[in-house]
Amino acid sequence: MSSPSSEPAVSRVSLFALPALSLRSGQGVSWLAYVGLAEQEKAASFSHPDEALAFAAQHTLMRVLAAQLLGVRPTSAADIPVDRSCLLCGKSPSHGKPKIEGVNFSMARSLGLAAGAVAGPGVSLGVDLVQLRGNYYDSFDALALAPYEKRVVKSLAKEQAQLVRHLLWVGKEAVLKATGYGLALAPAQVMFSLPPLPQSLEEAQGLAAQARALFPAGAGDGEGQLETDQQTISFWVTWQVLEGKYLLAVASDQPHELTSHLVASPLEVRRGLEADGFLP
User: Fold this and answer.
1) Looking at the DSSP assignment, which residues form a beta bridge with residue 116?
2) Taking the model in full, what pTM does it have?
3) Cα distance between residue 217 and residue 137, in whole Å
4) Smallest Cα–Cα separation from 144: which of 112, 176, 116?
5) pLDDT per residue over 184-242, tens digit each?
6) What is the tens place of the pLDDT at every residue in 11-28?
7) Could you report how far apart the first and last alpha carbons of the chain are, in Å?
8) Are 65 and 104 in contact (CB under 8 A)?
9) How many beta carbons lie within 10 A of that of residue 136, not counting itself?
10) Cα-flanking dihedrals φ and ψ of residue 162, to 5°?
11) Which domains does the chain show, CATH number per domain?
Protein backbone atom coordinates (compact mmCIF):
# COMPACT_ATOMS: atom_id res chain seq x y z
CA MET A 1 0.00 0.00 0.00
CA SER A 2 1.31 3.45 -0.91
CA SER A 3 2.08 5.88 1.86
CA PRO A 4 0.07 9.13 2.01
CA SER A 5 3.11 11.09 0.88
CA SER A 6 3.18 9.16 -2.41
CA GLU A 7 -0.30 10.29 -3.41
CA PRO A 8 -0.21 12.79 -6.28
CA ALA A 9 -1.09 16.37 -5.45
CA VAL A 10 -4.46 17.74 -6.51
CA SER A 11 -4.12 20.70 -8.87
CA ARG A 12 -6.61 23.49 -9.41
CA VAL A 13 -7.76 23.89 -13.02
CA SER A 14 -10.01 26.67 -14.30
CA LEU A 15 -11.97 26.20 -17.52
CA PHE A 16 -13.36 29.19 -19.41
CA ALA A 17 -15.89 28.88 -22.24
CA LEU A 18 -16.61 31.81 -24.55
CA PRO A 19 -19.61 31.73 -26.94
CA ALA A 20 -18.25 33.04 -30.22
CA LEU A 21 -21.22 35.36 -30.72
CA SER A 22 -20.00 37.37 -27.72
CA LEU A 23 -17.52 38.98 -30.12
CA ARG A 24 -20.49 40.42 -32.02
CA SER A 25 -22.24 41.67 -28.89
CA GLY A 26 -21.77 44.94 -27.06
CA GLN A 27 -18.71 43.33 -25.41
CA GLY A 28 -17.01 42.76 -28.76
CA VAL A 29 -14.91 45.91 -28.57
CA SER A 30 -13.51 44.99 -25.15
CA TRP A 31 -12.60 41.48 -26.36
CA LEU A 32 -10.92 42.62 -29.57
CA ALA A 33 -8.80 45.13 -27.67
CA TYR A 34 -6.61 42.12 -26.73
CA VAL A 35 -5.76 40.91 -30.25
CA GLY A 36 -3.62 42.39 -32.99
CA LEU A 37 -3.80 42.63 -36.76
CA ALA A 38 -2.06 39.28 -37.39
CA GLU A 39 -4.78 37.22 -35.71
CA GLN A 40 -7.57 39.39 -37.12
CA GLU A 41 -6.17 38.88 -40.62
CA LYS A 42 -5.91 35.14 -40.03
CA ALA A 43 -9.55 35.04 -38.93
CA ALA A 44 -10.52 36.98 -42.04
CA SER A 45 -8.84 34.34 -44.23
CA PHE A 46 -11.42 31.68 -43.33
CA SER A 47 -14.00 31.17 -46.07
CA HIS A 48 -16.79 30.24 -43.63
CA PRO A 49 -17.84 33.09 -41.30
CA ASP A 50 -18.63 30.75 -38.41
CA GLU A 51 -15.14 29.24 -38.61
CA ALA A 52 -13.65 32.73 -38.67
CA LEU A 53 -15.63 33.73 -35.60
CA ALA A 54 -14.63 30.55 -33.70
CA PHE A 55 -10.95 31.16 -34.52
CA ALA A 56 -11.21 34.77 -33.37
CA ALA A 57 -12.95 33.72 -30.15
CA GLN A 58 -10.27 31.13 -29.35
CA HIS A 59 -7.34 33.47 -29.88
CA THR A 60 -9.03 36.36 -28.14
CA LEU A 61 -9.76 34.22 -25.08
CA MET A 62 -6.16 32.96 -25.11
CA ARG A 63 -4.76 36.49 -25.05
CA VAL A 64 -7.21 37.66 -22.39
CA LEU A 65 -6.16 34.76 -20.12
CA ALA A 66 -2.47 35.43 -20.74
CA ALA A 67 -2.77 39.18 -20.21
CA GLN A 68 -4.69 38.76 -16.97
CA LEU A 69 -2.23 36.21 -15.57
CA LEU A 70 0.85 38.17 -16.66
CA GLY A 71 -0.46 41.57 -15.61
CA VAL A 72 -0.32 42.94 -19.17
CA ARG A 73 -2.56 45.81 -20.31
CA PRO A 74 -5.20 44.93 -22.94
CA THR A 75 -3.55 47.22 -25.49
CA SER A 76 -0.27 45.30 -25.08
CA ALA A 77 -1.77 41.80 -25.09
CA ALA A 78 -1.28 41.40 -28.84
CA ASP A 79 2.48 41.70 -28.27
CA ILE A 80 2.66 38.72 -25.90
CA PRO A 81 4.88 36.21 -27.76
CA VAL A 82 3.33 32.82 -28.55
CA ASP A 83 5.63 29.85 -29.20
CA ARG A 84 4.18 27.25 -31.58
CA SER A 85 7.26 25.07 -32.02
CA CYS A 86 6.43 21.49 -32.96
CA LEU A 87 7.62 18.74 -30.61
CA LEU A 88 7.76 16.23 -33.47
CA CYS A 89 9.69 17.96 -36.22
CA GLY A 90 11.54 20.30 -33.87
CA LYS A 91 11.56 23.00 -36.52
CA SER A 92 8.24 24.52 -37.44
CA PRO A 93 7.29 27.66 -35.54
CA SER A 94 3.69 27.50 -36.73
CA HIS A 95 1.87 24.25 -36.01
CA GLY A 96 2.81 23.12 -32.49
CA LYS A 97 0.79 23.50 -29.30
CA PRO A 98 0.77 27.22 -28.43
CA LYS A 99 2.89 28.15 -25.42
CA ILE A 100 3.27 31.44 -23.57
CA GLU A 101 6.05 31.86 -21.03
CA GLY A 102 4.66 32.16 -17.52
CA VAL A 103 1.19 30.82 -18.39
CA ASN A 104 0.13 27.16 -18.28
CA PHE A 105 -2.88 26.86 -20.57
CA SER A 106 -4.59 24.86 -23.28
CA MET A 107 -7.11 26.03 -25.88
CA ALA A 108 -9.82 24.50 -28.06
CA ARG A 109 -12.63 25.61 -30.32
CA SER A 110 -15.67 24.36 -32.17
CA LEU A 111 -18.21 26.23 -34.26
CA GLY A 112 -19.91 28.64 -31.88
CA LEU A 113 -17.66 28.15 -28.86
CA ALA A 114 -14.08 28.61 -27.68
CA ALA A 115 -12.59 27.16 -24.51
CA GLY A 116 -9.42 27.67 -22.53
CA ALA A 117 -8.10 25.98 -19.39
CA VAL A 118 -5.38 27.21 -17.05
CA ALA A 119 -3.43 25.45 -14.30
CA GLY A 120 -0.45 26.11 -12.09
CA PRO A 121 3.15 25.47 -13.20
CA GLY A 122 4.37 21.93 -13.69
CA VAL A 123 1.01 20.47 -14.76
CA SER A 124 0.66 18.92 -18.22
CA LEU A 125 -2.72 20.29 -19.33
CA GLY A 126 -5.02 19.73 -22.29
CA VAL A 127 -8.55 20.76 -23.18
CA ASP A 128 -10.76 19.80 -26.10
CA LEU A 129 -14.39 20.22 -27.09
CA VAL A 130 -16.82 18.85 -29.64
CA GLN A 131 -20.23 19.91 -30.80
CA LEU A 132 -22.57 16.94 -30.54
CA ARG A 133 -24.00 16.30 -33.95
CA GLY A 134 -24.01 13.43 -36.41
CA ASN A 135 -22.53 9.95 -36.06
CA TYR A 136 -19.01 8.63 -36.30
CA TYR A 137 -17.75 7.03 -39.50
CA ASP A 138 -17.70 3.23 -39.70
CA SER A 139 -13.94 2.91 -39.17
CA PHE A 140 -13.87 5.15 -36.06
CA ASP A 141 -13.63 2.32 -33.54
CA ALA A 142 -10.80 0.59 -35.39
CA LEU A 143 -8.76 3.78 -35.72
CA ALA A 144 -9.43 5.59 -32.45
CA LEU A 145 -10.24 3.04 -29.75
CA ALA A 146 -8.03 0.69 -27.75
CA PRO A 147 -9.09 -3.01 -27.70
CA TYR A 148 -10.81 -2.76 -24.30
CA GLU A 149 -12.68 0.38 -25.37
CA LYS A 150 -13.87 -1.34 -28.56
CA ARG A 151 -15.33 -4.21 -26.56
CA VAL A 152 -17.14 -1.86 -24.23
CA VAL A 153 -18.60 0.28 -27.02
CA LYS A 154 -19.69 -2.81 -28.96
CA SER A 155 -21.66 -4.04 -25.95
CA LEU A 156 -23.76 -0.85 -25.69
CA ALA A 157 -27.05 0.11 -27.27
CA LYS A 158 -26.72 2.40 -30.29
CA GLU A 159 -27.50 5.75 -28.61
CA GLN A 160 -25.33 5.10 -25.57
CA ALA A 161 -22.51 3.83 -27.79
CA GLN A 162 -22.55 7.12 -29.74
CA LEU A 163 -22.41 9.12 -26.51
CA VAL A 164 -19.46 7.06 -25.24
CA ARG A 165 -17.67 7.55 -28.57
CA HIS A 166 -18.06 11.31 -28.09
CA LEU A 167 -16.72 11.05 -24.54
CA LEU A 168 -13.74 8.94 -25.61
CA TRP A 169 -12.91 11.10 -28.60
CA VAL A 170 -12.91 14.45 -26.81
CA GLY A 171 -11.13 12.87 -23.83
CA LYS A 172 -8.40 11.38 -26.02
CA GLU A 173 -7.90 14.70 -27.80
CA ALA A 174 -7.53 16.47 -24.44
CA VAL A 175 -4.95 13.92 -23.29
CA LEU A 176 -3.00 14.13 -26.55
CA LYS A 177 -2.96 17.93 -26.24
CA ALA A 178 -1.66 17.56 -22.68
CA THR A 179 1.26 15.48 -23.98
CA GLY A 180 2.09 18.28 -26.42
CA TYR A 181 1.93 16.00 -29.47
CA GLY A 182 -1.76 16.23 -30.35
CA LEU A 183 -3.09 14.05 -33.14
CA ALA A 184 0.44 13.40 -34.40
CA LEU A 185 0.06 10.41 -32.06
CA ALA A 186 -2.61 7.79 -32.63
CA PRO A 187 -5.73 8.21 -30.45
CA ALA A 188 -5.65 4.47 -29.77
CA GLN A 189 -2.45 5.08 -27.78
CA VAL A 190 -4.64 6.74 -25.14
CA MET A 191 -6.43 4.05 -23.14
CA PHE A 192 -9.21 4.86 -20.67
CA SER A 193 -10.13 3.07 -17.47
CA LEU A 194 -13.83 3.60 -18.04
CA PRO A 195 -16.04 4.69 -15.13
CA PRO A 196 -19.72 3.75 -14.87
CA LEU A 197 -20.94 4.95 -18.25
CA PRO A 198 -23.66 7.62 -18.55
CA GLN A 199 -26.98 6.79 -20.17
CA SER A 200 -27.56 10.38 -21.27
CA LEU A 201 -25.67 13.59 -21.99
CA GLU A 202 -26.92 15.08 -18.71
CA GLU A 203 -25.29 12.24 -16.78
CA ALA A 204 -21.95 13.02 -18.46
CA GLN A 205 -21.69 16.35 -16.64
CA GLY A 206 -18.76 16.17 -14.22
CA LEU A 207 -17.85 12.60 -15.22
CA ALA A 208 -14.23 11.76 -14.37
CA ALA A 209 -11.88 8.96 -15.38
CA GLN A 210 -8.21 8.07 -15.69
CA ALA A 211 -6.35 7.34 -18.89
CA ARG A 212 -2.92 6.03 -19.83
CA ALA A 213 -1.06 7.57 -22.76
CA LEU A 214 1.80 5.83 -24.55
CA PHE A 215 4.01 8.41 -26.19
CA PRO A 216 7.66 9.09 -27.13
CA ALA A 217 10.07 9.68 -24.27
CA GLY A 218 11.69 12.55 -26.20
CA ALA A 219 11.08 14.88 -29.11
CA GLY A 220 11.62 13.97 -32.74
CA ASP A 221 15.00 13.79 -34.41
CA GLY A 222 14.29 16.91 -36.46
CA GLU A 223 13.12 14.95 -39.51
CA GLY A 224 9.65 14.09 -38.25
CA GLN A 225 10.67 10.65 -36.91
CA LEU A 226 9.74 9.61 -33.38
CA GLU A 227 12.28 8.15 -31.01
CA THR A 228 11.81 4.44 -30.36
CA ASP A 229 11.79 4.75 -26.56
CA GLN A 230 8.28 5.21 -25.22
CA GLN A 231 6.74 5.77 -21.83
CA THR A 232 3.30 5.46 -20.31
CA ILE A 233 1.93 8.44 -18.40
CA SER A 234 -1.30 8.58 -16.41
CA PHE A 235 -3.79 11.39 -16.96
CA TRP A 236 -6.93 12.46 -15.14
CA VAL A 237 -9.86 13.58 -17.30
CA THR A 238 -13.03 15.47 -16.40
CA TRP A 239 -15.92 16.07 -18.81
CA GLN A 240 -18.27 19.04 -18.91
CA VAL A 241 -21.49 19.63 -20.86
CA LEU A 242 -22.38 23.12 -22.05
CA GLU A 243 -25.58 24.47 -23.58
CA GLY A 244 -26.79 20.92 -24.11
CA LYS A 245 -24.76 20.53 -27.30
CA TYR A 246 -21.06 20.88 -26.46
CA LEU A 247 -18.95 18.28 -24.71
CA LEU A 248 -15.67 19.49 -23.19
CA ALA A 249 -12.86 17.46 -21.65
CA VAL A 250 -9.98 18.64 -19.47
CA ALA A 251 -6.95 16.37 -18.99
CA SER A 252 -3.96 16.76 -16.67
CA ASP A 253 -1.14 14.53 -15.48
CA GLN A 254 -2.16 15.22 -11.88
CA PRO A 255 -5.55 14.80 -10.21
CA HIS A 256 -7.37 18.09 -10.54
CA GLU A 257 -10.20 20.10 -9.08
CA LEU A 258 -12.02 21.69 -12.00
CA THR A 259 -14.03 24.92 -11.93
CA SER A 260 -15.92 26.00 -15.05
CA HIS A 261 -16.87 29.52 -16.13
CA LEU A 262 -19.11 30.54 -19.03
CA VAL A 263 -17.93 34.07 -19.83
CA ALA A 264 -19.23 36.92 -21.98
CA SER A 265 -16.66 39.64 -21.18
CA PRO A 266 -12.97 39.97 -20.23
CA LEU A 267 -14.07 41.22 -16.82
CA GLU A 268 -15.79 37.88 -16.18
CA VAL A 269 -12.54 36.11 -17.04
CA ARG A 270 -10.70 38.17 -14.45
CA ARG A 271 -13.35 37.51 -11.82
CA GLY A 272 -13.15 33.78 -12.51
CA LEU A 273 -9.38 33.76 -12.16
CA GLU A 274 -9.65 35.69 -8.90
CA ALA A 275 -12.31 33.35 -7.51
CA ASP A 276 -10.20 30.30 -8.36
CA GLY A 277 -7.06 31.67 -6.71
CA PHE A 278 -5.03 32.42 -9.86
CA LEU A 279 -5.11 36.16 -9.18
CA PRO A 280 -4.94 38.02 -5.86
Assistant:
1) 16, 107
2) 0.89
3) 32
4) 176
5) 788 999 999 988 899 999 999 999 999 999 876 654 443 444 445 678 899 999 999 99
6) 999 999 999 999 999 889
7) 39
8) no
9) 15
10) -65, -40
11) 11-123+256-275 (3.90.470.20), 132-254 (3.90.470.20)
